Amino acid sequence: MLFSPALRLLGLVCLCLLAGSAVAEDGNGALKEVPFQSLTDHNLTPLGQAAMSIHPNDWKHTETTNFVYHYFHSFIAAPVSVEAEFYYRVIAADLEKDTTQWERKSHIFIFETDADWKEFQKKGALDPWTGGIHSQGSLFIQRNPELKFKGSTLGHEVTHLVIERFYGAGVPLWLNEGYAEYSASRCYAAFNRARGYAARPTSRSVPPDLYLPVGQLVSTLTYPQEVEKVTVFYSESERLVRFLTKTDKHGFSVFLEAMSKGNRIETALNKGFAARFINLDALDREFKTYATQQGGFSNAD
């Protein structure tokens, strides 16, 4: 029996939720705080050290199967720990990667206030539009306790982590960001649907006058300088990943593997999609309408 991508993702959701999140809990079901020096991994990257320099005496620490958490309040960190483990397992499974042999844990730093996040942006020399970041195997996010729905930032950054862990640092910028946007949207919607919310993945269309031909998009090596163009870059990259996965899910996996190993995009397209796209112009002709199409997509898209 064949299952749609939507049913397959829902199955992964159920398996992950049934398996639990492996959260370290005390007897009352709250996160069990662990002294910093008792963590299984207390080596911090330079960016992690910069984060810990903000209110250095107020950070608390705990860990789960795949992550070490640094946080200020348990009621903020507990949901993050459930989501992070869920996203990690679902994304790795979707990419058909075995996580069981990976022993090193990643660190997640959880900020709460805008003021602290802005101070961290300054200390880390981050772009002002950065809402979360994956760097050297560590994740840095902001979780506003006043917001009921937290958005897909955590899923986006966990996706970057999985991509780097299993594909290395050779995945091009557009593909890395495009897959992170695509995967985070699907996982976040599935996570909330499993909790009874009518959530669907979101996908922003590209304004026709700002559309970049595929050849230009895939040649982009750095983020655009203008905020508006940053948004378009993310949107078009996500749409291209969505288009390729809809064309052939397994073919996209082959394509991603080839791109991570330094293949030129024409070579990777040929490996993943055979004669479907004979060159970038052929891909561009099919993709442009899809990229600029208004409206959302069903979970199967």
Q: How would you describe this protein?
A:
This protein is α/β, with parallel strands linked by helices and 301 residues long. 49% of the residues lie in helices and 8% in strands. It has eleven helices and five strands. It has helices at 5-19, 46-52, 74-94, 114-123, 153-167, 173-193, 214-217, 227-247, 249-260, 265-273, 280-292, and strands spanning 60-63, 67-71, 106-111, 132-135, 138-142. A five-stranded mixed sheet has the order 1-2-3-5-4, with helices on both faces. The longest helix has 21 residues, at 74-94. The model is unreliable at 1-22 and 296-301 (pLDDT under 50).
How is the topology of this model organized?
Blueprint: H1 5-19, H2 46-52, E1 60-63, E2 67-71, H3 74-94, E3 106-111, H4 114-123, E4 132-135, E5 138-142, H5 153-167, H6 173-193, H7 214-217, H8 227-247, H9 249-260, H10 265-273, H11 280-292
List the defining traits of the structure above.
single chain; 301 residues; alpha/beta; 49% helix
Number of strands: 5
Q: Which parts are unreliable, with pLDDT below 50 for 5 consecutive residues or more? A: 1-22, 296-301
Number of helices: 11
**Estimated structural class:** alpha/beta
Beta-strand proportion? 5-15%
Strand order of the largest sheet: 1-2-3-5-4
The radius of gyration over CA amounts to: 19 Å
Main beta-sheet strand count, sense and barrel state: 5 strands, mixed
